[in-house]
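Priority: medium. Attachment 1 of 2:
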């Protein structure tokens, strides 16, 4: 190989490397700059807290109030419609474990903020009343409260041992009903002043009662649980459309986690059906919460597993809808490399929390479906550029790792063939040596393409971005790389036919393999 050809070879090698890495970076860049969905904007960071319950949202004019449990304190954060903090109140909660936070509108333009806490001597509900400027008006405790559930903006359920209480914080009206001690109570609003309350009792019964016009009815048995050995309920939620009430149980089993959905006709709760809670195109469903009912359709949020971009499995928050027992997938609310959970939504805003394992806390984000919010927050963020670069670098490293995992499928046959030719090369004429070199390169290319095709275009086809989804394009990429490197190898061998063929073949075999895997390895598992 002359000096001129050698310089061309080095230039071509560098140009190919830069071009491949640039394309990979552009793919990762495009993936990372995308918002969670067309509907919801990118999350705006609010703070990092020890979150331990679902945030609650209240709307105050053109502002939003968020109540967030933060280990030994409760925070109330006021934000504007762009997600900017305009106020914050911290309420210390000493010597208590917060299990749940409720945040309701109360009399006189005030807010009622409460939290469940468990103590050795007794469970109780702590509360504070805040004015519209988040100044404390009053605080106190209610003893014996095992659980609180927020039904709407102003209505609260309290569960005691053997009975429940429903209170309207705007009117001060309270109703009581006897019910067996329950581990899980949930409820939903059917219509104005009409609520459905469901509970899972200690003896494995699902009970329900209704609150209509200020009158709380006696509980009735709707169904009995059918828990297998090793199963345990983690949480429940109830949602309602025009015809059904849906009780969704999130369970831990011997094999992991699963969600189960009970479907109760509102006209006759005894005629229920049940089945595994599944969402179309989603691997796992967790932490389901009811949001609201609009136009006869129940809206929920859930934590889900989904694939996004190149080999990225995200644990995100997504919407889904149920109408007349038919489930429809909605839009994704979050897109994060961390596990997103504790999703809450109200009106045109949503809040979610990303778990940070290093500090064992959560980054809290707010998002909105308003165009003004999306225009301000959907721009490319610095961390998204960094992630795109990290993903590109990771793909480059994969190209070397996959030489052992995948490249061996064509490298080993090529080495055996070129080794045999090298062993017998003294018997061949110069013309035969050239033809055998070319033949080995062609056979190696065919084996290589078969390996890439069966892996990328069959086994892991769903990982391929649209730009690489064409089988024809994949063929020509493999062909161009092989022709490029083996051509230079041939020129090197042709100038020194007395050299061992294996010495003139291996360097170009490795270059062809590495560059091919630089293109395709990032799209393999």
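Attachment 2 of 2:
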């Amino acid at each position: 190989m002359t000096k001129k050809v050698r310089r061309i070879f080095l230039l071509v090698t560098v140009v190919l490397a830069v071009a491949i890495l640039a394309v990979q970076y552009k793919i990762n860049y495009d993936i990372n700059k995308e918002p969670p969905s067309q509907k919801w904007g990118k999350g705006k960071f609010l703070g990092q807290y020890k979150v331990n319950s679902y945030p609650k949202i209240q709307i105050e004019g053109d502002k939003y109030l968020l109540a967030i449990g933060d280990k030994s304190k409760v925070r109330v954060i006021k934000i504007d419609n762009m997600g900017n903090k305009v106020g914050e109140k911290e309420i210390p909660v000493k010597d208590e474990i917060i299990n749940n936070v409720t945040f309701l509108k109360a009399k006189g333009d005030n807010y009622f903020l409460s939290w469940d806490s468990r103590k050795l001597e007794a469970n109780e509900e702590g509360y504070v009343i805040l004015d519209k400027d988040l100044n404390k008006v009053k605080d106190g405790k209610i003893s014996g409260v095992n659980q609180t559930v927020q039904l709407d903006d102003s209505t609260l359920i309290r569960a005691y041992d053997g009975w429940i209480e429903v209170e309207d914080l705007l009117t001060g009206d309270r109703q009581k009903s006897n019910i067996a001690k329950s581990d899980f109570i949930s409820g939903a609003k059917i219509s104005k002043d009409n609520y459905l309350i469901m509970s899972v009792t200690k003896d494995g019964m699902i009970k329900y009662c209704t609150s209509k016009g200020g009158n709380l009815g006696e509980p009735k048995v709707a169904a009995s649980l059918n828990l297998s050995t090793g199963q345990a309920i983690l949480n429940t939620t109830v949602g309602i459309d025009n015809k059904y009430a849906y009780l969704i149980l999130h369970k831990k089993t011997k094999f992991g986690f699963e969600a189960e959905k009970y479907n109760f006709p509102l006209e006759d709760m005894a005629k229920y059906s049940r089945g595994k809670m599944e969402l179309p195109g989603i691997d796992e469903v967790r932490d389901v919460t009811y949001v609201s009912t609009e136009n006869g359709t129940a809206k929920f949020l859930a934590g889900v597993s989904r694939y996004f971009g190149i080999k990225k499995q995200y644990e995100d928050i997504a919407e889904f809808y149920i109408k007349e027992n038919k489930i429809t997938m909605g839009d994704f609310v979050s897109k994060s490399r961390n596990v997103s959970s504790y999703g809450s939504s109200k009106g045109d805003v949503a809040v979610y929390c990303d778990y940070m394992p290093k500090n064992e806390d959560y980054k809290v984000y707010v998002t909105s479906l308003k165009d003004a919010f999306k225009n301000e927050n959907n721009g490319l963020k610095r961390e998204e550029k960094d992630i795109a670069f990290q993903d590109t670098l990771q793909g480059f490293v994969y190209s070397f790792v996959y030489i052992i995992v995948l490249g061996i499928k064509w490298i080993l046959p090529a080495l055996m063939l070129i080794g045999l030719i090298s062993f017998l090369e003294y018997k061949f004429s110069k013309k035969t040596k050239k033809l055998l070199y070319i033949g080995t390169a062609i056979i190696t290319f065919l084996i290589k393409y078969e390996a890439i095709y069966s892996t990328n275009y069959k086994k892991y086809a769903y990982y391929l971005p649209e730009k690489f989804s064409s089988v024809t394009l994949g063929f020509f990429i493999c062909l161009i790389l092989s022709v490029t490197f083996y051509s230079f190898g041939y020129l090197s061998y042709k100038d020194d036919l007395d050299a061992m063929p294996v010495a003139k073949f291996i360097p170009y075999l490795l270059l062809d393999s590495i560059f091919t895997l630089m293109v395709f390895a990032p799209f393999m598992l």
